[in-house]
Amino acid sequence: xxxxxxxxxxxxxxxxxxxxxxxxxxxxxxxxxxxxxxxxxxxxxxxxxxxxxxxxxxxxxxxxxxxxxxxxxxxxxxxxxxxxxxxxxxxxxxxxxxxxxxxxxxxxxxxxxxxxxxxxxxxxxxxxxxxxxxxxxxxxxxxxxxxxxxxxxxxxxxxxxxxxxxxxxxxxxxxxxxxxxxxxxxxxxxxxxxxxxxxx
Length: 200
Description:
Elements: H1 22-31, E1 35-39, E2 42-46, H2 51-68, E3 73-76, E4 81-84, E5 89-91, E6 95-99, E7 111-112, E8 117-121, H3 127-138, E9 146-150, E10 156-161, E11 169-173, E12 178-181, E13 186-189, H4 190-193
Parallel strand pairs: 4-7, 8-9
Antiparallel strand pairs: 1-2, 1-5, 3-6, 4-5, 6-8, 9-10, 10-11, 12-13
């Protein structure tokens, strides 16, 4: 879902404008209380998710953080953005992990450029955007090894890997299954990821 910023006291974004500069984007983001994404001259405001989205996000972050403790990998939630070199694009993944030293965009402390793993929790309103537009840009990031889509209406997770040039889709489903994030070397049970999630 995307917010209409009219009358919200937020920087006014022209929905039909496609020539915003990177400098304009950063200036708007600094004045905004919302997460703004930028690609190909377009700026979009991202809204929050529903309770299932929040539960899956929290469960995944906690599970990954516990498993990665003591490793050289660190996991982040949806408040940090990444830079994709294509066009370029500034995007907010739901979850990302970085292994080894972090690399930031020069002059900025809020933009990572070297994610190892990116996870998106799918919402009906953003499914096409996450699966097509964002995925296309994520694949351009040289450090990215794994891209994961977590469904929120059924226990189902899709994984794609740079190891096979993003050509194969691995599907893990069912509450009794476990999913392995090979890029960071951890495995999580789906019953943990989907704890307290209400399927409709």
